[in-house]
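Researcher: Structure for this, please.
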Amino acid sequence: MPRTLRLLKWFNFILDVVALNASLWISYGVFSARKSIQLFQVLPYLLIINFGWLFVQSFFKIYDNYQHRNSVSIFSRTIKSFILFSFCLSLVFMLSLQNSFLRGIHSAHLYFYLGAWALFAYLLLLNRIVLLSIRKNIRQSLRYSKKNIVIVGQNSSSRTLSHLFSADTVSDYNIMGIFHDQYEKREDNALYRGSTTDCIPFIRNNRVDEIFCTLPGISKENVNILMHEADRNLTRFRLVPDYQEYFPGSISIELIDNIPVMTGRKEPLEDIRNAAFKRCFDIAFSLFVIVFVLSWLIPVLGLLIKLESRGPVFFRQRRSGRSNQPFYCLKFRSMTVNKEADARQATRGDARITRLGAFMRKTSLDELPQFFNVLIGNMSVVGPRPHMLKHTEEYAMLIDKFMVRHFLKPGITGWAQVTGLRGETRTTEDMAKRVEADVHYLEHWSMLLDLKIIFLTVWNIFKGDEKAI
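Model: Predicted structure, token format:
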């Protein structure tokens, strides 16, 4: 990659910092004149905000590998960074209200932060659009600087590399030839240059920047010879394992003491940064619901539940949690007290459901006490719905990948619930579809997806969900 593109990420970083400080100073200039906010009053918070942005961008590594990362990934990381930064900004605002110098001008202080927040959001988006356009133009103007490569080997990995490097969307590589010892299986006569040993004189007589050697199919002796010859000709040598026979889909690779280990499933929440961010969101969101909703809703619904039927206000049931560890899931009691509660799933028209219980289940109010589970750490706001222990044992024997969903904490709502897979599971096929949705969430988690699921959950509550029972 040309040096210009490598420097672009630093230019991007500098522009973001300039945008942040410009937003702060412009907002200060606007509101200081109207409400007499003094510079010495806000200067400490300006420094805290700058350090906050440095922390957030390093947390999500939004500038790392900037020259190779696609536009969707760049925008996704930027949006997640801005969401976390907004949370940090709200904490700074709350902190500033405790400052004795600022008593009596709280409204001006709020306008200052909101103005800076909105302007920074606009400038951050503008930076991304402009810099991605610049990167695209640089790539198009520097096509002559492609790296010359050869591919050695004949297997699924070599074919994938050949198709990838030949695509128009990848402008960094030029395939000069493909070498392997299976002449009868050659798939591209134009690129086939001969056997593995023919690669040696080829790189001696041509400028080859990199060799991609795909395994298996090449003897250890020939690999060693190619590595030695690559070093002599100032050519980088890269080994590519043929994993697609075992993992046909996407894979995740990690290093354990310099040993590469491949996993056939990407799990974004295995990254401690993503897990920490999701946990912080869970704590903040659950505290908000508990303080501003459950604090008054529990006495109201508790009284109504007691008036309609005998029994406790809350229903506690052992459910399957993360790593299949059981926990007590908390709900508002929506049924009369019965002996089948831990064995029989609720069905449409179930006689055990009370009139108030039917309303709570229809509007999902019965699920709200689970925010206490979220705060404790047994559950998450978004995740696979927890099942009764009996159902976990039954479906684990019937459905492939059923237990995979237990890699995550169970959630109050989930991807399955907002995509029409909520409610009673009458057949094994119904449960299999729900499991498929849960595995999809596991492999494609993002904070944006969580926010989308939360929005769709609230939307379904107001418009009504036919599958809610």
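Researcher: Any notable elements?
Model: The chain is about 55% helix and 10% strand. The longest helix spans residues 272-308.
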